[in-house]
Amino acid sequence: MTLQQFFEWAGNNSGLVAGYFMLIPILAAIMWWVAQGHGHENPWRYIYSVLIYLVCIPGIFAFTLSLYIFVFQRGDIFQTDLLLQFLPILSMVVTLWLIRRNVSFDQIPWFDNISRLITILFITFILMFLADRVHIYSITFVPLWQIVLIFIALVVGIRYAWTKLF
After folding, report:
1. What is the share, in percent, of the chain residues with pLDDT greater than 70?
2. What is the spatial distance between Cα 104 and Cα 112, in angstroms, rounded to a whole number?
């Protein structure tokens, strides 16, 4: 299945997609109400972790896809698919806000993996944006494997600096 086929399937089954992205914040709100004041305890932390992964993976994907379409392909904002480009991001923001009201993200297991993913995607996007704007696609006297190593070193260096900063 290609990405285009997936988007066509999601467009044909918009009720399922909309239901999924509305169900997760509703579950987070129910969890906030049920576990209010006890979100840092063991069973609730893992349930919050599952909810975060269920909403953040599609939300991060939708965000990066939207950035790619608008920045690199210079897509028209009027052609934005609200179901696949806006609803996952909105669902992610609302879910994280509801969970944050009950428990600190530091106490949620594996939340640091999501924050690392966001950081690495952000750094990669910035580097790709700079390379696109400067129009440096290849340096003829440097082999490709050295360019890849330089890119990886930049990502690791910026990631290290980011962790030291925050």
Report:
1. 93
2. 12
Phi-psi group of 110: left, alpha or beta (phi > 0 → left; psi -120 to 50 → alpha; rest → beta): left
The CA-atom distances, in angstroms, between 80 and each of 64, 67, 76 are: 13, 11, 7
How far apart CA 88 and CA 81 sit, in angstroms, is 11
Q: How far, rounded to the nearest angstrom, does the alpha carbon of residue 150 sit from its chain's CA centroid?
A: 25
d(CA 14, CA 162): 38
Structure tokens at 93: 């923001």
Closest by CA position to 100, among listed 55, 68, 142, 151: 55
- The answer for 104, left when phi > 0, alpha when psi is -120 to 50, beta otherwise, is beta
Helices and strands counted in the chain (H then E)? 6, 0
> How confident is the model over 107-123, as pLDDT tens digits?
888 877 787 777 777 77
Question: What is the tens place of the pLDDT at every residue in 34-45?
Answer: 877 776 778 888
Whole-structure pTM over 0.90, yes or no?
A: no
